[in-house]
Design a protein that fits this description.
- There is one protein chain.
- This protein has 16 helices and 24 strands.
- With about 600 residues, it is α+β, with helices and mostly antiparallel strands.
- The strands form 6 sheets. Strands 2, 5, 6, 7, 9, 11, 12, 13 and 15 form a 9-stranded mixed sheet that branches. Strands 1, 16, 17, 18, 19 and 21 form a 6-stranded mixed sheet that branches. Strands 4-3-8 form a 3-stranded antiparallel sheet.
- A hairpin with a 3-residue loop joins β18 and β19.
- α2 packs parallel to α13 and α4 crosses α7.
- It is globular, with a radius of gyration of 24 Å.
Amino acid sequence: MKKKVKASIAALLCFCIVISASSATFASAKAPDTDAAQILSIFDSDEILRKLIVAVWRIACPILENAVGVIADALPESKNWIDYDKYESKNFYPGHEYFLDEQTKSSVWSLGYSQEILTPEDLETRGYYMAGYSIGKITFKKYDDIKVRTICLDDGSGRGKVAFSVIDAIGLANSDVRKIRERLAAFASEKNIVSINVGVTHTHSGLDTQGIWSKEPQTVFNNILSSIFDIDTYNGTDPALMERIFTLTAKSVRDACSGMKQGSLTLATKDISSYVMDKCDPDYFISDLYRFKFTPYDGSKGTIIANFGAHPETVGFTTDSFPGDTLSADYVPYIEEVVNKGGFNFMFFQGAIGSLISANRHLSGDELKIDRYQEAVRYGQEIGYILLGMSYKTEQECIDYVLDKEREAADMAASDKYTPWYKDWVVEHPEKEVAPILNIALKEILFKVDNPFLQAVGKVSLTNNTMVVDDDGSIYTPTEIGYMEIGKDLKVILMPGETAPELIIGGKTMTSQGSCSGEDFMFKPLRDIVGENLIVFDVMNDATGYIIPDNDCGIGTLRYYDGRFMYDTNGMLSFSNKAASTFISNFLELVESKS
């Protein structure tokens, strides 16, 4: 009886912290429309008071973490957890056995492309839970379809093909990625596919593919009781939706790899800093848009591959004048719309978005009277025009070849502050041929989950992550880190969460002067270590939450910046306050092993 009472109390407490954390996260999502962004300006302060508040916070933060830890400890372990000694790695693909520095005599780029519509066919009659903001929001309608887009890439060296699928979803657990790979095992062996990777666009107006936006109260209480009584556990994901995602993603990989064609690959970059914003202070983000363009030798349809970092969160957020209750992949399909009109397939890899890097809609709005959905449409279309325009050298070329003249004229008439996307056009690094060299390696990590809030989430099996526990009660989850080289110059880190850009490019929060802990982060920015040509494919092969510098991560973060104290909840949604150092150390070991 005592055990049941204890579990019931724990269930109530867990429910409270889940709802509290969710509410804090959803409240912070108002940031695109406010100067405060993801942060709360507490009050201005002189130097003495500032030091006092920081000192008190550094004492209070561990107390808060310990309090949440007491609740997590009180919860019974999920019966779905696996003993550490019994964990068996399955459906993990390590990539190429060895890396090449130079192309071989047989080297030539080959690429195959495929996409599938993931929108449930019964959406309008059945309804599905949305993900990204409010808990329990069901949608029966759509602005646009959610899709999976896939490329299969090979350099002709004979070492094996590489497949990438990106789903219009907020996140996908590594265990679900491995279910997709399981369905492709025989095909991968037959086609010599050595790496299968599944990422997401991270749309905040898609369907719940993680289980934490749908039936939280029922899930929490059911799964705690399942540890006491003989009843099944479940997470909040919809089995029919997940089956559709698994089946169609696997199909897209088969189709892409079966339809590969030889061709050339080029790379161009452009600064789009006006189109991206960091909702946290101090603000750091990677400002470049990277565009790969594959052109088949047989003259068939080519493929444009884009990489930049910006949360697709415009459509899903609810305001007094906008419901935010309609399914959408946000800005992504509207980039695709323009790119398709330009004669290309479209593929998008989300960039480093960990400090709540978001779409800056200024150049797509400029005081035009449009709603949030229309803002997302305009933003996507302008990014699409920019992608096509990267083949041109002058503003006039952009106007002549890729401009929607009627729309532009109407917008200029509607607002004297409207700024055309092509204004002062410059492509910093015009397209350059990429040598046919493709190297990829991945490393599996049993990642220690020491965030007490997410320990509690794991114990009640809200998400579909595989959880492993050792004899000491420490909790782990299998995840992956990846390293890829494309051509002789470009390098890619495949991150399993939302990466703080300062980990890549540097920033004040990496130092004692700017972080909440008053200590330096243990690593230099990765571009200082690996090279300036490093980019990020984010939320790839897992969704482990925010990856923030250890010295600036906690269940609550307090910083002093520009005369204000700033508080945010990013650390609450990170598997560990050592996530950054864990992933970076393993990444550098991976790089070293292939050097």
